[in-house]
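ok here's Calcineurin-like phosphoesterase domain-containing protein, seq below lol
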Amino acid sequence: MGNVLIAGDLHGNTAHALTVVRTAVREECARVFVVGDFGAWEHMASGRRYFDVIGKAAKRAGVIVYFLDGNHDKSSLLHELYDDCRDDEGFLVCRKHLRYAPRGHRWIWEGTAFAAFGGARSTDKGWRLAREARKAELVAQRRRYGSSKTPETAGTLWFPEEEMTDDELTALLAADDSPVDVLLTHDKPRASQPKWNRKDKPECYPNQDRVQRIVETLHPSVVFHGHLHVRYTDTIASGDGQWTRVEGLACDPEASQYPEYAKEHSWYVLPLPYAQPEIEAAEPDSLPA
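and the structure came out like this:
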């Protein structure tokens, strides 16, 4: 079971997450890797239960579930809780069979070099901040009527750390800019061109440019990402005459708005050790057979 099941956004959807774990067993994958928007909301009781359920399911299945952070994961809390709980490969151990790959993390599986870079821009930031403000108003009202509860409201629906900063990325690449075989991100590289792109907005471009910079620095053979909630394949130039294949993955069924959605589009079986195929420039959106 040396294969890896790469999975798109789960958004804390327990039923779909359990389907992904069962699929990993069926496809003989010892590892699952979710490319962001996993559902890391341990500031809420439901988020802690979700971690418990997925951790126990992975243990029963004999697999380990890994994830990087998306724009809807509270990554600051992951570092606060688990920075001192790392395994031998440097992953943060959230549960024994559930582990987090922080931004810029690198590792080798079966002779294949990986790197993970999470983060993206939330296009619904305004809505989320408005909801947090309304929650704060309700807390203040309850206090006026004698309630002693003062739950935190800021940073519960929108997370300030959702995007990499330019300085953060510069520091990570300065620490190690050696090539990798497989790059795992939440956001897409700017150059990839899916025909259906719900994030084709000016506010999203800076982080896409950061991912593009990672591609052109690390020259991966393949990039897997989520965030767009749609399955597509593209090929982009990655500098020095090299090409990189981009595999965008769909999400859990409840979050998809894509009319041609299929559950199977939300995962990809990556054989290990990874054998780099001959890559040539190709038309975007050509799904593999």
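fwiw The helical segments are 14-26, 45-61, 75-82, 125-144, 166-175, 205-218. kinda neat tbh
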